[in-house]
Fold this sequence. Notes:
single chain; mainly alpha; 12 helices; about 75% helix; globular
Amino acid sequence: xxxxxxxxxxxxxxxxxxxxxxxxxxxxxxxxxxxxxxxxxxxxxxxxxxxxxxxxxxxxxxxxxxxxxxxxxxxxxxxxxxxxxxxxxxxxxxxxxxxxxxxxxxxxxxxxxxxxxxxxxxxxxxxxxxxxxxxxxxxxxxxxxxxxxxxxxxxxxxxxxxxxxxxxxxxxxxxxxxxxxxxxxxxxxxxxxxxxxxxxxxxxxxxx
Length: 208
């Protein structure tokens, strides 16, 4: 059972995370300092660093939560589903249940606005891509375990995840530079791109 002290610490962390994202999206990542965040929550800089290694970790904090949710969703997919279908269903389920995952910390709209900040901030984009490599390896190992294959001798788990990761990266780029920044738009774009993977890889693209 969670103690009062643990609940208080969680509330402080959530407040720091939410405030950091609000400042990053309103005044820019580069123009926001750790002191700005700490002052807005009325805590010390030292307290901030008890919860986050720095601004970068706070900026990607909600994404870490959604990634953990996605990995659990992949593990929970029915064993009869082919790997790519399991990934597709897990990511779409993730968009459908996003409110349940992050609303206790921050509004979904704030989470989505941070995507644009990440895409337009080189240091955050580099960190996001670096973390994506680690996430893809974790997914590959989950798929290998599901399918009963050795991830280090069978290339298929990593190949499948490389394709999936490329689709998700394309989706993020197109969504963040489009005109509709809604959750529905992100979900629809994700579904559309994943549905085109098979034809794109196995069929001719010529129209004549």
